[in-house]
C-alpha cells in the first residue's frame, strides 16, 4: 500500500474529526458527535433537492463512550483543552436527582443555548447506560496522568463528582459479591443480547473506575487526606482488590479450568468447602470451547450467573482486562495466544468481532426479543466493529514491553499490522461505517451509520500508536493497586 494512500486516508480522518465531528458550545469545543449526518438527494415538489435526513436518531448527540477514543486522541494530538472541556461538560451534567444522583449521562444534545442530557429516559428501551459513568472516572484519571494537571483534580467540583460516584458504589447492598449488577443493554451492547447480570465489560470498567477514583482523590489532596477521603480511598481499593480476585477466580477460563469445571460436584450447601459456588453443571459447558481455547489460550468469560455462565468471548472486556493489568502477565499472553489461534473468527475481513459465537435460531428470538438489528452475525450479535481495534493495539503493544519471546512479539506485530492495513484499505471506501455484518465482516452493517466518529478515530489512534508514536502505548496505564496502597497511612 502506497504512502500517499495512507497519508490521504489519515488526512481525511483528521479532517472529519476536527472539521465535521467536533461540536462547540459557548464557542468552546466540548466533544464529538457519534456520526456525521450525510446529505442525500430526494425528489420533492417536482424537483430533486439535497437534504440531511432526519433518521439519525441520537447519532448527532455526544456520547461519553463514543468520546473515549476521540478524547484520548485529542490528548495525544496536543489538544488537551478539548479533553478538559469534555470532562467539565459531563461533570456539569452529572445527575443531582434523588434517584440517579452521581451518574453521568449516556449522551447529551448540544443546542444553541442549552445542554440536554439523557440518563436513559430517552434511550431506546429506556435502559440507562452504566459504562458512561465508569468511563468518565477513567478518562479523568488518564487526563491528569497525561497532562500533569493536578490543579484540575483539586477543584471542588471534580472532587464532589468523585464523591457522588463513590456514594453510589460503596453503600451497603443486598449482595456480598463485589461485581456490579446491570440490566440487559446497559453498556456498549445497548440492545437485548442476554448480557444482564454482571457482564464482563462493566466489571472491568468498574475495576478501572475504582482505581481511578482513588488516584484522583489522592492527587486532588496532594496525598494529604482528610479522614473521610482516606476512608473513601481505602474502600475503593478494597473493593478493587476483591473485584480483581473475584474475576480471576470466576471469570478466567482455560483448558485446565474447563477440565476442573466438568468434574465438579453440584447441589452443594454450607459455609465452607464449596467448590462449585454457582452450581454450574457440565451440560452448560459448550463443546466449541475445545477448539476455541486451543492448547495455550485463555480468556475472561462474558458473565457469571447462578447455574448459567455466559461462555461467549467479548472483545472489549478482555482487551480492557489486559490494558488495566487486571489480568496477570501470564494470562495476558494466554489471551493474545487465543486471539492468534482464532484469527479467522475474530479478524476475518474486518477487525474486530465484538463477541463470539452469535446467538442464533431460538436463542436469538428469545434472548434478543426478535431484535432485527441483532440478528445472527449482525450489529452486537457477533458483528465486526473497527472501533475496537485500537484497544487491542494498546493491549498488545503494552504486552510487548515485557515479551521476551521474539517469535511471539513478531506474531503480535504481524497481527496488528495486518489489521491496521485492513482498516486503512477498507474504511475510506466503505465510508467509515459503524459496523460490518456477516461471518467474515465483509458487508457494511445493514443499519450502520456511515462516517461514524469512533470508526475513523480508531484508524487515527492505530496509526499514531503503530506508525508514528509507539512510545504512547502507555496512554491508558492506570496506577497499580500496590502503588496506590503505599500512599495510605493510618490517620
Automatic annotation (TrEMBL):
Q: Name one GO molecular function term.
A: hydrolase activity
**Top-rank lineage group of the source organism:** Bacteria
Give the main EC class. hydrolase
Q: Could you say which EC number(s) this protein's record lists?
A: 3.2.1.26
Known catalysed reaction(s)?
Answer: Hydrolysis of terminal non-reducing beta-D-fructofuranoside residues in beta-D-fructofuranosides
Query: Which UniProt keywords are given for this protein, alphabetically ordered?
Result: Carbohydrate metabolism, Glycosidase, Hydrolase
Q: Which family does it belong to?
A: Belongs to the glycosyl hydrolase 100 family.
PANTHER family, per database record: NEUTRAL_ALKALINE INVERTASE 3, CHLOROPLASTIC (PTHR31916:SF28), PTHR31916
- For this entry, the protein name equals beta-fructofuranosidase
